[in-house]
């Protein structure tokens, strides 16, 4: 019996991707990571010791995984949903490229994405 392992490689821009490259910038340090398709940026950050809290466990109810998305990638993200937008409206350091890392799932269009981690986070659960 032969077992065939299925991989999550996809063809994008004439190259095969088995992982998505992500760069977090925290305290002026670059943290380069490789994520899996459909993985959230919050999970990838936690797996790579990026200091995003994710106090709510990724349920989009606290805003402690707030990041700034590089402007080249902001239009490649899924449209922001009302719950996420409501939370971001209440953070102290909101910018037009603010998003929650728990709300962003990796896909082939995000390969090479760069995210700035704010120095302070607002926990809206308290």
Describe this structure in words.
A hairpin with a 2-residue loop joins β3 (20-26) and β4 (29-35). The protein has one domain (17-116): Ubiquitin-like (UB roll), CATH 3.10.20.30. It has helices at residues 41-47, 82-88; strands at residues 10-12, 15-17, 20-26, 29-35, 66-69, 98-100, 113-116. The protein is globular, with a radius of gyration of 15 Å. The model is unreliable at 1-8 (pLDDT under 50). It is 11% helix and 25% strand. The longest helix has 7 residues, at 41-47. The termini are far apart. It is α+β, with helices and mostly antiparallel strands. The chain has a 5-stranded mixed beta sheet.
Short description:
The protein has 2 helices and 7 strands. Residues 1-8 have low confidence and may be disordered. By secondary structure, the chain is an alpha+beta fold.
What's the domain count?
A: 1
Write down the overall geometry.
Answer: globular
Which stretches are poorly predicted, pLDDT < 50 over at least 5 residues?
1-8
Please give the number of β-strands. 7
Major sheet? 5 strands, mixed
Q: Please give the CATH class.
A: Alpha Beta
Could you state the order of secondary-structure elements as H and E?
Answer: EEEEHEHEE
CATH homologous superfamily heading? Beta-grasp domain
Share of helical residues:
10-25%
CATH architecture: Roll
Based on helices, strands and strand pairing, what is the structural class? Answer: alpha+beta
| N→C terminal distance | 56 Å
What is the gyration radius calculated from CA atoms? 15 Å
